[in-house]
Amino acid sequence: FIKEHVGIFKAANNYDVFDAETDEHLMECREKIGFSTKILRFTPFRRVTPFCSVAQTLGGDSLFIVRRGVTFWMSQIEVLDKNEQLVGAFRQRWSWLAFLSGWGCANVDVLNPQGQVICRIAPDFNVVQFRFVTKDSEDVAVITKQWAGLAQELFTSADNYMLSIAPNVDKKSPLRLLMLAAVLCIDFVFKEGTK
C-alpha cells in the first residue's frame, strides 16, 4: 500500500510504503528538488519539471532512485538501484485513447537496462487501475488507486495506491522494483500532471 503525503500547497511528492496485510511501515520515498523546480511546480509548467525520488528504509538506507529530466513531450523515466546502476526505465507511448480522454499517454513501456520492452503498463478507461501486461498478454501486477476520503480527494492531489504482484513473479526479479517505482511515476507524471 503506497500512501502519498497530504499537502495543500506542496512542491515535492513524498510517499510511505506499507505492507497491506500487516500495516507495517516498510519504506519511504522522498522527492529531492531544487529551488527553481519548486517555483515551477506552482505554474502550468509543473508537468515538464524534472524529478528525483529516493526510496529508502526507515533507517535511511537507499533502496532505489526514480528520476526524470526536463521533458516536453513523452517522458522517459529511469529507475536506478541503491548503487545508482540502471535497473530499467519507463517510456510513454502516445495513443488516441489517451489524447481523447485528456489523460496524456495511455500506455507506458517498461524497459530493461538494454532498452528492450519487457512489458507495458496499461490503464483502464477511467484511469483508476493500471495493469502490467507482458508480451504474452499475461497480467503480472496491478496498481489500483484507492479511495482516500472525500476531503482528501476534493481538496488535495494526494492519492493512495495498492500494488498487487502476481505470485509467479520471482521474488528477486528486478521487475518487482520497477513495479514499485511505477507507482511514483503513475502518480506524479500521469495523474497529477493532468490535475
Description:
The protein has helices at residues 35-40, 96-101, 150-155, 174-191; strands at residues 2-4, 14-18, 25-31, 51-57, 62-68, 76-81, 86-93, 107-111, 117-123, 129-133, 139-146, 160-165. It has 195 residues and is α+β, with helices and mostly antiparallel strands. 18% of the residues lie in helices and 38% in strands. The radius of gyration is 16 Å and the shape is globular. The protein has four helices and twelve strands, in the order βββαββββαββββαβα.
Q: Order of strands in the sheet with the most strands?
A: 1-2-3-4-5-6-7-8-9-10-11-12
Main sheet characteristics: 12 strands, antiparallel, barrel
Structural class: alpha+beta
Q: Report the span from N to C terminus.
A: 22 Å
**What would the principal axes of the Cα set say about the shape?**
globular
